[in-house]
Amino acid sequence: MECQDITRKLQINKDQSIGEVIIIVEGEDEEFRLLKHIFTNILDYNYVSIRRGKKSQDVFISKSNMNSKVIVVNTANSSIKSIFEGENYYDNIYNLLSPRLGRSLKNIPIYILWDRDNKSNEQKVVKKALESFASAMDNEYEMNGLLLLSYPCVEVYELSNFQKQLWRGSFYQSNDAKKAKAEFFHRIKKNIRDIDENSLILAAENMHRTMKLFGITSYDPSNFKRENCIIFREEEDNYKYSKRFRALSLISIMLIDLGIIYRKDSDNVNN
Fold first, then answer.
1. pLDDT tens for each residue of 118-174
2. Number of helices and strands (H, E) in the chain?
3. Between helices 123-132 and 89-101, what is the axis angle to 10°?
4. Which of its termini does the chain have fewer beta carbons within 10 Å around, N or C?
5. Are 162 and 189 a contacting pair, CB within 8 Å?
6. What pTM value is reported for the model?
């Protein structure tokens, strides 16, 4: 993946073939609704969700892109410790996924989407996890996986699809962001199903504007450790002094890394 200049205009490649991708989430409902809408209604990819405590799977079969499959699975509980505590995070991830998928995880991109809610996850645990899971495909000699946080929660990503100035905003904790999303969506008469190609671009632009505030002007989404740690440090400092997180979700990094969102002037588009 080439280096991304955050000042460049972006666009969607709906024909991008991504192979098989695994996404690990913490929640039971919100992330599943969001990801299913993006990957089925907008992109028309094959989709499977595997939820804790449920024997049946939610399966969607694509009519146009049989070479792309997204598997979404959640963890034992919403605490980041459910996969990131102990000495060997990689065993935790493998033990979570392998029995439920029935196959090796080698050479499969893995994205881990989590909320940075100060009420549920310890700073030191999150920091170590960010340092360990820096690439969806290649973490040196360790298991593949890229941890992408939403500050403070996934509802910020949903807001970023519609609120042009969200990058200027901030929230104390997840409940504030959830309330703001509910009020804003009610006011503009929108919901998750209204997210489309154009709104995905706006979400990525909101993300880039906040990253620029943190001094990040370019990055490689396939090796995101440095930028992830900078963002985390800036957000933690901001919370320390103002008791608020800047409104930022890094979910768009996943779409950029997969080539679904790309620079408008780039010739590096894989179909």
1. 776 778 888 888 988 899 997 665 678 899 999 999 999 999 999 999 999 999 999
2. 9, 14
3. 70
4. C
5. no
6. 0.91
